[in-house]
């Protein structure tokens, strides 16, 4: 049986969605149809939402799950009239929080992903630009400005990780692809040597690397399992010799790789 | 008075953090020290966490707020012994959900940001690579493969938006910077004409654009307010003439811009 899950918000819906996904991940045997509905910020939209939920209830033969982060209790009340199971996040936690903080909620809408504090937001965008300017093979290498320099074989996940660190945490991360030439020297590339403290290494299982490289350049020497095995072996040797902290990314998502780097290096989110 | 808020998880902590930030945003008058602690996945780490919370309670003279998404109830119980106010997300919602779904939770840890379904995760990484390959001034323009083509003046926010759409939603978004040359022609750039249905325009207040451009190239003609006013005026005219949906990004974060584009275009997250 299919169940429909709605993630409803007066803002972007990212928080309701994140929480809903976390909870639904605990019920792997059930098939969920997941629908995110942002910007439900007035009574009229809430009434349309009720209709939509009821249609799904009818179609599924079971009431939909609703995960909402709506600040306005009048809007929440309208939604609660729908035929649904409601995990009402603000409704559940706001009033105990008000009591704990001895302060009234401002009941302001869609604050968590808004530009509340321009300085913070701009740091994130600067960090994205920094990551792009200091990506693989870029000629500009502002390693003095970098908070982190990710190194690793080509296609081991450096670029998406740098971008995620920038967008999510405002971290200025550069990346440097370790090439065969670098490995032949048996020492750290000269350009990196002054910045050893900022370095973090990525590694990956050679099989997986070969698969990824084959998508880019099928049947090339670059994508061969032999080449991948050789590079990864040498690169891991380098990490250990130079005492560079490193992580095998094979089983991890960008979110997990980024979080683990933050924990290992002690870097702090730029607020 | 300062209050400390901990976002604690057995996984990346992204969900606990998102929810905690949403709730704390409602209390703008209180100063919070925010600490995210990922990977609290055994009893020993939980005991250390209790000490850390109690130290903060002592230092602040008020009990910390704890927002947790820990699946294992034994770990949650340890944490609940700390001197804190606990917004216990899984503790609150899991058991009613089990009842509603007539199914037991799998109590599996850190699932929401893990690579559960490789196909989905790979689409996100492909989308990031696509955005990078089809960014501003790229020679490769695989507009036939794109799900969305963002257009706009240089520095109006196209690149970070494309990257966010890729990372968050797995959307393949290309971007095309509208230049003065394009504007002189008084028609859509030829390379875009076959893909009008995929186009979405960004605009921005000329003042803001001038500020952003001045950071990149101080005191240039490119960054002058006169030039920015001219470009934006012409670009908005083009959007209206060609009936391209568009959004003024001045007051919005990348998350908000991306969500609004998803809503307006009806694009769906790639799962």
Written account of the structure:
The structure is a homodimer of 271-residue chains. Chain A is an alpha/beta fold and 271 residues long. Chain A has two domains: 112 residues, Rossmann fold (3-Layer(aba) Sandwich), CATH 3.40.50; 148 residues, Rossmann fold, CATH 3.40.50. In chain A, 46% of the residues lie in helices and 15% in strands. Chain A contains ten helices and eight strands. In chain A, helix 6 links the parallel strand 5 and strand 6. In chain A, helix 2 runs parallel beside helix 3. The longest helix of chain A has 18 residues. The mean pLDDT of chain A is 91. The interface between A and B is large, with 73 and 74 residues. Chains A, B: Bifunctional serine/threonine kinase and phosphorylase involved in the regulation of the phosphoenolpyruvate synthase (PEPS) by catalyzing its phosphorylation/dephosphorylation. Chains A, B: Keywords: Kinase, Nucleotide-binding, Serine/threonine-protein kinase, Transferase.
